Amino acid sequence: MKKIFTILLTLGILLPAWAQKPRPDAFPSAEETPAPKSLTMASTLEEMYQWDRYPTYEVYLQMMNHFVETYPDLCRLDTIGTTVQGRLILSLFITGTAETDVYRPEFFYSSTMHGDEITGFYFMLRLCDTLLSSYGTDENITNLLDRTRICINPNANPDGTYYGGNNSVSRSRRYNANGVDLNRNYPDPFGTEPLDSLQPENRAMIDFVSQHSFRLSANIHGGSEVMNYPWDSFTSRERPHEMADWWEEVCKRYVDTCRQYSRSCFRDVNTQGYIEGGDWYVISNGRQDYMNYYHNMLELTMEVSSDKKLATESLQRYWNFQSHSLINYIKEIFTIGDTTHTDTTSTDTTTTDTSHVRIQSMDAPATISVYPNPTRGEVFITTPLATRRVDLSDRPAGVYYIRVDGRLYKVVKL
Ligand SMILES: [Zn+2]
């Protein structure tokens, strides 16, 4: 077994964090992102089937029900849970009708956990329609549905998407109704605790994936165009994912196929269009690391449009250059090798500093608190004993575990 040791005191081993564009996913500059010039809404199912607008909440529900009524043999609707404000978190299970006793691996698409990143919401509805309407006529899609069970959750944060009311997405926002960023609210496999209590949307998602055995998944966001594979908590040099080579191949295939239809796409973070999460930007308590670590579920993050709220006149064009890749990504479930997930834990007791504050090198600490992240310099960590000042200004960017008055705190230094 290959031993993976991560030096958490990351002096001098980080990639230059500023070589890439800062990750917009990490720093919303304001509660609501500015609305582009047109966010036309479909207020009827017929209008939605024009595929040039976003659905009202009612039309979204109607469309999900319409799929089941139109294709009862191919799909069923499931409720993952309800949001803070009582909206539904829905999923559609799609599989073919061919009689076979061959095991069908389960695939999962989930979008828009950041409520204002709505391109993927549209993509997922259109993907449901494409898969269902093509079954029996398109050989490629027929074979895919007969070999897999595909679950599609178009919107994981409808309270955020419909923050301005059910009939508009123009005031959609990143957070849920409690003002919590759902992508900083998952249990962290590397030992940190989220700042906020587990939100109903994430509790429902955790219960849902626990009841299934999804093997491959994608979590769809917006704000950039880049494929982002695990881990998010570490740079690739600190802790490479054991399937990093496979992830890169999968990402490259996705981006290359998109570029057959649009040469300019997936270039706003780097030229290759994909990156390991932590190499772009380290985050804690994100969904990607949680899913990969705890559920033996290979999940990456797709950032599918530079504009979070893609103008409705661009929706068709974005679908046209990504639809092939979205379908092909499902097929990647058959390219997964036999690599098993392994993780090692070890402790290096090397410490620096003295007194009440120690910055410690160790791997996978058992009990730890996460400090409000990230920071560019000094932090004030309050323990039961006192508030201690820690200055990381002179240290390179990276993840630090800091022992203060005997307790460990995880701090991300930008
Ligand atoms: Zn996002």
Tell me the total number of β-strands. Answer: 17
Q: Which class best fits the helix and strand makeup?
A: alpha/beta
What is the CATH architecture term of the largest domain? 3-Layer(aba) Sandwich
Taking the alpha carbons of the first and last residues, their distance comes to 33 Å
String of helices and strands: EHEHEEEHHEHHEEHEHHEHEEEEEEE
Radius of gyration: 22 Å
Question: Could you name the CATH topology of the largest domain?
Answer: Aminopeptidase
Biggest pleated-sheet summary: 8 strands, mixed
For the residues shown, what is the average pLDDT?
Answer: 83
Question: Which compounds are bound in this model?
Answer: zinc ion
Shape summary: globular
Supply the CATH superfamily name of the largest domain: Zn peptidases
CATH class of the largest domain: Alpha Beta
List the domain count as a whole number. 2
The share of residues in extended strands comes to 15-25%
Low-confidence stretches: 1-22, 338-355, 361-367
Instruction: Determine the number of helices (DSSP H or I, runs of at least 4 residues).
Output: 10
The portion of residues assigned to helices is 10-25%
The largest beta-sheet arranges its strands as: 3-4-6-5-7-10-8-9
